[in-house]
Specification:
Two copies of one chain form a homodimer. Chain A is of the alpha/beta class and about 375 residues long. Chain A has two domains: about 5-150 and about 350-365, NAD(P)-binding Rossmann-like Domain (Rossmann fold), CATH 3.40.50.720; about 155-345, Dihydrodipicolinate Reductase, domain 2. Chain A has 15 helices and twelve strands. Chain A has helices spanning about 15-25, 60, 75-85, 100, 105-110, 125-140, 155-165, 180-185, 195-205, 215-220, 220-235, 250-255, 260-270, 275-285, 350-365; strands at about 5-10, 30-35, 40-45, 70, 90-95, 115, 145, 170-175, 290-300, 305-315, 325-330, 340-345. In chain A, strands 4-3-2-1-5-6-7 form a seven-stranded mixed sheet, sandwiched between helices. Chain A is globular. The N and C termini of chain A lie close together (about 10 Å). Chains A and B meet through helix 7, strand 12 and helix 15 of A and helix 7, strand 12 and helix 15 of B. Chains A, B: Keywords: Amino-acid biosynthesis, Methionine biosynthesis, NADP, Oxidoreductase, Threonine biosynthesis. Chains A, B: It comes from Aspergillus nanangensis. Chains A, B: InterPro entries: Asp/hSer_DH_NAD-bd, Bifunc_Aspkin/hSer_DH, HDH_cat, HDH_CS, HDH_short, NAD(P)-bd_dom_sf. Chains A, B: This is Homoserine dehydrogenase.
């Protein structure tokens, strides 16, 4: 029999809630001993670290008797609690909190493995990236973060396998944002469509496909963070997501509006003023028999990372993308002119949580 | 420091040779102590199990002094040798030998893990499949066989993650044979082509894309074996690759020709007699604006597995496939109407070996 593995989970938003559902249905699940949302923390009582917290959902967990309830704990306090558990422990960070991500080395050095869809830790300064993996080696802990790119799609694991087995990755290209995929598949589909850019943005916002402030999608930063992670795994020392060109789709005059509800409302109201600019970009592509898409690309040899609009042939895989799907193409020496392609939903609670749960299972297999 | 891991490798054909090249370039490679081809076996001398065999290639290995040289060893003898090594051991089977595959339980029960692209062990009787995984559990050994389907493409790992995290896989569909992909992408591309079926088969044979006897590709058995493996991972108890319909592309009058060089020559000579039949199938599809492709599909709910010709819309991903690429689509509850798709080269020594090497690294991570 292997010894039990102890689990701390932070974040009970969309991904966090889906993850708890998946966790509750795992055979051989680890023992959930810490569950936290922004202002509250549930803990299995020390020193026995039992009973475990039921994984079903926050409500069930928070009404379970014999658990310890506290306010928000600091990363140091959480690390101290987990590292004193009578077995190996894993922290699942289902937040997008940069502060928690900044503390990963603290956890890792104490032997606590990290599983997370939170991009912040892996796409900030390169020194932090190095610190994370050096701390993991030092603490003999593991770090899995498949869902930071393409949600549950096998993107990072595939790239890591290519690199680890000695293939030479020459180029990575794709559509990395479900939101921007939807916007361009709807605004400029193969065969054309008679739609205004602003209408498509508003539709996406109403469907819940955009962040509360659509500018958080249109600024390209989310894509830039994902490219930073991929480029680093491919061996490039990208200093930060600001160290390469990012084409923002926010009209310059609207970039300065505040991110308050009022600012967002003003942005939406004024966006139609710029429909002509986007229509011109679309038509330029169409005149050449192409379509325009918002893509990210990494040229490994020339160390060039780019995020922005590009034209594609109408019969290309990128042009044919549907809905809010992601597509990622890996060009390598072994795969030659036809890339290895991974495609599918790259956003959404259930598929993002799936990547987290699959990572958790892999970490558990390695810790046993 | 972790204890060393000992490695036995059988088979030095196309995949075996590529694998040895990749193995030789791994940092932290396991100790190669057994290397065998059909009639010869190289061994590190017992009881020290050292020196290790250089992994570069068969010629270098076989001319290395201080190794023990023997003829072909039986699976029992190989298992006895590996299980007595002073650490955990792994057998990499780079053959397509059904006899060796039949012995996997012998290795696994003795704690020897298996990594292989050999389909035979996983696509014969269902009782053998069960025996393999029960033996692995009993011997606390691991079995990784990613390259049995789609070569190095992340197909089995993706399906296993979907199943393990509790997604409901409803349908798997795709082009699973590089050879049949090339034949149909060339014979019936989107937009049409004026080619005779027999000419395309001969071209593929001359390019080395077919087995020495092209009927070994055209009979659909290779695809049926892959579907058997996928269906079993998806939870279906497929008894054998013969237990579902397989559409053979060998004209009935030519199926009985011997598999000798003379029989193959006769097959090639007489194949043009049947060009009219294949042209009719192509034209029927074209009249409906479609193209014909040779695909495999698994309907998990109705437990239906099928291998054969099917028509596809010209703008579908399957119709747009290039060269000898594979494409595999997973339809699941979480992914909804847009499947998770993996696409790329599904055959060839280097990419198949890459799947084997990646599996080897994963097994090593778990054994440490």
């Amino acid at each position: 029999m292997s010894s039990p593995i102890y689990l701390g989970v932070i974040g009970v938003g969309g991904v966090g809630t889906s993850f708890l559902h998946q966790l509750a249905r795992l055979p051989n699940a680890p023992k959930l001993i810490l569950l936290a949302r922004s202002s509250q923390t549930l803990l299995s009582p020390t020193p026995s670290y039992s009973p475990a917290i039921p994984a079903a959902d926050w409500k069930t967990a928070s009404t379970t008797p014999s658990l310890t309830t506290k306010g928000a704990l600091s990363p140091d306090e959480i690390a101290a609690y987990l590292s004193s558990a009578p077995g190996r422990s894993i922290l699942v960070d289902n937040t997008s909190d940069p502060k928690l991500a900044a503390s990963y080395p603290v956890f890792l050095r104490q032997g606590i493995s990290i599983v997370t869809p939170n991009k912040k830790g892996f796409s900030s300064d390169f020194s932090h990236w190095k610190d994370i993996f050096e701390s993991a080696a030092q603490g003999k802990a593991l770090v899995y973060h498949e869902s930071t790119v393409g949600a549950g799609l096998p993107v990072l694991s595939t790239l890591k396998d290519l690199v680890a087995t000695g293939d030479e990755v020459t180029r990575i290209e794709g559509v990395f944002s479900g939101t921007l995929s939807f916007l361009f598949n709807t605004f400029a589909p193969v065969g054309g469509a008679d739609k205004q850019w602003s209408d498509v943005v508003i539709q996406a916002k109403e469907l819940g496909y955009t962040e509360p402030d659509p500018r958080d999608d249109l600024n390209g930063m989310d894509v830039a963070r994902k490219l930073t992670i991929l480029a680093r795994i491919a061996g490039l020392e990208v200093q930060s997501p600001d160290s390469f060109p990012i084409e923002s789709l926010i009209p310059a005059p609207l970039a300065g509006l505040p991110s308050s509800a009022d600012g967002i409302a003003q942005f939406i109201t004024r966006l139609p003023e710029f429909d002509g600019e986007m229509a011109a970009i679309k038509e330029t592509a169409e005149k050449q028999g192409k379509v325009v898409r918002y893509v990210g690309s990494i040229d490994v040899k020339s160390k060039e990372v780019r995020v922005g609009l590009q034209q594609f042939d109408q019969d290309s895989a990128i042009a044919g993308l549907k809905g809010s799907d992601n597509i990622i193409s890996f060009y390598t020496r072994r795969y030659g002119s036809n890339p290895l392609i991974v495609q599918g939903a790259g956003a959404g609670g259930d598929v993002t949580a799936m990547g987290v749960t699959a990572d958790l299972l892999k970490v558990m297999e390695r810790l046993h």
